[in-house]
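To: structure desk
From: M.T.
Subject: fold request, one chain
Message: Could you run this one when you get a chance? Sequence is below, nothing fancy, just the single chain.
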Amino acid sequence: MAIYTLADMQAASRRSSSIPRHYHRIAEAAREHHRFSVADAVELKLRLQALNTAVSGATAALHIGRDITNIADIDEAVRLQSSRGTVYVAGSEEFFLVVKTISRPDLIPNVYAQACKAMLQGRPYVNTYHVSDFNKGVDPTFSEIRRLLPDIDRACETDLEGAVARLEAQGKPKVLSR
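Reply: Done. C-alpha cells follow.
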C-alpha cells in the first residue's frame, strides 16, 4: 500500500526542467517561420520541371531497351536550385494552392525521385514515415504525392504521373503463356 502526502501530489504535476515552459508556443512560432510560401512554390515548380525531364529521359531509355545504371540525372534534378534573384514563373499561385495541402511540399521532388529510382531498379516503392525536421512536420509519403500528380502535372506542364505509370508498367511481372 502506497501512502502519499500533499507534497508528493504537487511534485507529480511538475514538469521536467529540460522542457521550456512555453514549448507549444515556441514550436508553433518555429512552424510559422518555416511556412511554405508562393516564392517556395516557384522554386519547387522549377525543380519538378527539371525532375520531369530527367525521369522522362530515364523512362525513354528503358523503353528503347537500354540499361539504366546511372540515375545521377534524377539526383541532380532534385538538387536543382533556382537563381537567388527574383523569379516569377507563370501559374505559381495555382501551383501553390495545389501543393500546400501536403505537410512538406518542399520534399515532393525527393520523395518522387526515391520512388522512381526504386521502380527503375525493379522494386516497388515503399511508403515510409519520416520526420527529417521536427519544426517543419512529418515528411510526405509517395502515396500522398501521387494523388496530387494530375493537378501538379496541369500546373507545372509536366508528365510526372505518366512517367510513374510507364515505370510501373515496365516493372510488372509478365504472365507466361503456354
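Reply (cont.): Residues 63-70 have pLDDT under 50 and may be disordered. Let me know if you need anything else for the meeting.
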